[in-house]
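Sorry to interrupt, but I need a hand with the structure work. Go ahead and set the record down below:
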Amino acid sequence: MAAEFIKLYEENPDERKIKKIVDVLRQGGVIIYPTDTIYGLGCDIFDTRAVDRVCQIKGVKRQKSNFSFICHDLSHIAEYTKALDNATFKLMKNALPGPFTFILRASSKVPKLITAKKKTVGIRVPDNSIPRTIVERLGNPIITTSIHDEDEILEYSTDPELIYEKFKNQVDIVIDGGYGKNVASTVVDCTESEPVILREGVGILE
C-alpha cells in the first residue's frame, strides 16, 4: 500500500494530522519529514522493527548504523545524555533549536540498537516545529537520517513530491512541509573538553 502524503504548515501544524502521524509511529510506522535542513527518514527510537525498516531503506546494517535522533527541547535531551557540563549546556542553549547535530555521551535510556556498541549519540532539535511537535506528542525521540538523491548534482532530495514518488512504497507517511534545503546540519562533537566540528553544514556556531 502506498504511503500517505500529508501536507503540514510549519507555522501552525494541524493537530489532527499530527495525531494521525503519531498514531502511525506508535504502530511501528516509518515516516519522511521536513527539518530545518534536509528531509529526514525516521521512526520511534524504541521500536526495534521500525528501526530495522529504516536500516533496510538506507541499506545499512543495524550494527553499523549511525543514526541521530530528534528531541523536542533541551530538557528532553537531558534524559538521553550523561550530565552536560556548563560550557556544553550553554553552547547548546544558544544553538538550539537550530541546524546542528550534537554528539554527546549517551545515557542508559538510549536503546542499544541506536548506540550500536558506541557510548555516544547524535541529537538534534531542529528549528522546525513539525518534527518537534511530532516528537513532543509521541513522547519519544524519532530517528533522523538523511535521504540521499541519486542525482549527481544534488546530494539530497529537496522536493517533497519527488521524495514521495521515490519512497511511497517503502514508508508509511511522507510529510510535505515545503521544499527542503540541500545542505545537512553541522555536526559538533561535545564528548571531549572542547567542542569539535566534525562536519560543516548549515549551522554556524557562535
Summary: The chain is about 30% helix and 20% strand.
